[in-house]
Amino acid sequence: MDPKKWLVKLFATSFIVIGLPVFGIMGFNYYIDPLWNYTHANDFNDYQLGFDERQLKTNYINSHDFNYDSLLMGTSRITYLDERAFTKENVYNYSLSGLHITEYLPYMKYAEKKNGKPFKRIFIELYFDSANAGKPSTSNPPQTYIETSEAPFYAIKSLFSASTMHYALFNYDISKANHYDGARSYTRHNIAQTTYPNDDMEQGWQKFQKNFKAETAKPFMYDTDYRTRLQAIKDAFPNTELVVFTELMPAKRLQTILHNENRYEAYSRWMNDMVDVFGTVYSFHGVNEVTVNENDFFDWLHYYPNVGNLIIEALENREKRSTIMQTVNKGNLDEYLKNVVVDINID
């Protein structure tokens, strides 16, 4: 056989056997885009699993025209706040599951850098356990995700990945079904969505009580650097209004925590530190029509998106009276700490 013809046949065969499948995988991974490296949307990628929110939301920043008025930072609870529900400003929701106090500042600074200008406001959810030194971060450092997202050709190279293919297939299936039966999926526009049932609330409550009893066998390890961490956040954004607010949790869970003397002392110190640094804290800790309604929650940590809309409404109208939010400052902190403990049925 003519050597040239042999080489042509070899190349053609290799392309068919190897090249076409590889390009097919790349094309499918691109079409579904489970890593949020691109901006396109279609009927088969409108449900996205948030399997690694730190990487995905950082990728989103780099793949989109990132130009926002304000920023929203918080934990998995805050992922359920629909950024489109803010009516007075354009807000990016950079909230991340299990966000540790040491992670806030790096992600906030990165978002500001990519925004190209200071944010008008940063809405910051701080939660009681963020002051617990006994609960260290379990995630990689923020710089790991940032460097990955900014690595040369990362978006293209990720299309070859078997892991990308795995999540692309999963997203394809749930998008085709227009349903995900887990706790949270995302749209292509960084909007969390859920239809997760809350039929395990009683079982979850028993589990919480058991775990809380075990946890409180030891004193709360208050992070001695906590106030310094808060001050560093404040100092890093001199031209931005920082709107600090607490997590919203079911009344039974809150009161169980506050009725423990050691936890109440730590809680008081936590509130004092936040008020000392930021001047004003907006507290969603209370007994009200939302926190006593178990139908507003699908577990003892997370509420449904409709509650997120109420939180946004309260935060956007901070000057107005709210039934679910209290304004706490140095003038009323002592009174707040006295009244936040309420006797309700917590069995």
What does this structure look like?
This protein has a four-stranded parallel sheet, with helices on one face. A three-stranded antiparallel sheet has the order 1-5-6. A two-stranded antiparallel ribbon has the order 8-9. The chain is built from 13 helices and nine strands. The protein is of the alpha/beta class and 347 residues long. The longest helix is centred in the first third of the chain and has 30 residues, at 3-32. The chain has helices at residues 3-32, 53-63, 76-79, 101-115, 142-150, 154-157, 162-177, 201-215, 226-236, 251-258, 261-278, 305-316, 333-339, and strands at 48-49, 70-73, 91-93, 121-126, 185-186, 192-193, 241-246, 280-283, 326-329.
What's the structural blueprint in terms of helices and strands?
Blueprint: H1 3-32, E1 48-49, H2 53-63, E2 70-73, H3 76-79, E3 91-93, H4 101-115, E4 121-126, H5 142-150, H6 154-157, H7 162-177, E5 185-186, E6 192-193, H8 201-215, H9 226-236, E7 241-246, H10 251-258, H11 261-278, E8 280-283, H12 305-316, E9 326-329, H13 333-339
Parallel strand pairs: 2-3, 2-4, 4-7
Antiparallel strand pairs: 1-5, 5-6, 8-9
Helix pairs in contact: 1-7, 2-5, 4-9, 9-11
Transmembrane segments: 7-32
Keywords: Membrane, Transmembrane, Transmembrane helix
